[in-house]
Write a structure and sequence with these properties.
278 residues; alpha+beta; 6-stranded antiparallel β-sheet; globular
Length: 278
Amino acid sequence: MISRRRIFKIAALASLAPILPSCAKDASSEAGPEEKQPDPALFQNGDFVWPKNPADYVPYVARPEPQRPDQEALDEALWETERKEYLRSLSGQSKLDPLDEERKSLLEKMTFREFLDRYESNRQRGETTKTQIRRLYVGHVGILEIDAEHRPWVIEAVWKVGVRRIAYSQWIEQRKDDWVWLGRLNERSAEDRDKISAEASKYLGRPYKFFDFNLNDDSGFYCSKLVWLSIYRSLNQFAVDGNENPRRVFWFSPKQLLSAKAVKHVFDPAPYRMSAPL
């Protein structure tokens, strides 16, 4: 029997006006109203998974422990502390290149809410509120690895823990109420996609580091940076977002990966074009 809370969630999604997706996707990948997580039988090595609880605040930092009621306030305090520390580090340098200057100017004026709007919804600078109303917000992504016994694992970068490898059964047990999107690279062989998880596994144990704007720096990782670098290094410097310069003004976000034309949506717990923060 469908719970009243579940009916409310479905009704909320159904009320949204469609928005065309920014990446190609087979409509058959859209799930039915009760399918919120993909069947592991769909999994292939090198796939990507994006978890999201549609009823809760979307944290930008994945944590190994359950989300707290005051998680948004904690995230804001953490982000503000790290933002100020990063700006101090830039101010201590005698000369900044133009990219660093642009980033410094951006972060000096950016609020936490503006950061979330851009990082979790992929709203670009200059877009108005109207264009972001029905965007899907996501804050985390992991890489699937299928072992020799066909058991799925997730390789991900997690706050305080760093890059870890966790059994998918345990990973999904911690996310019973989450919806999970499943994607994989378009027009790439299974052999190519095998290389992605193999590359990611090289960085197990590396620390979590969010204020890092060089995507090809392997000294520390946040979740979507781990994916970008693993693809880039394993597939002959292929940039999944089309930007071959690993040095960036802003973070490469889980939503950018979800929106990338190079990524095929294998499973959507709700139509991507109709998803929104709830």
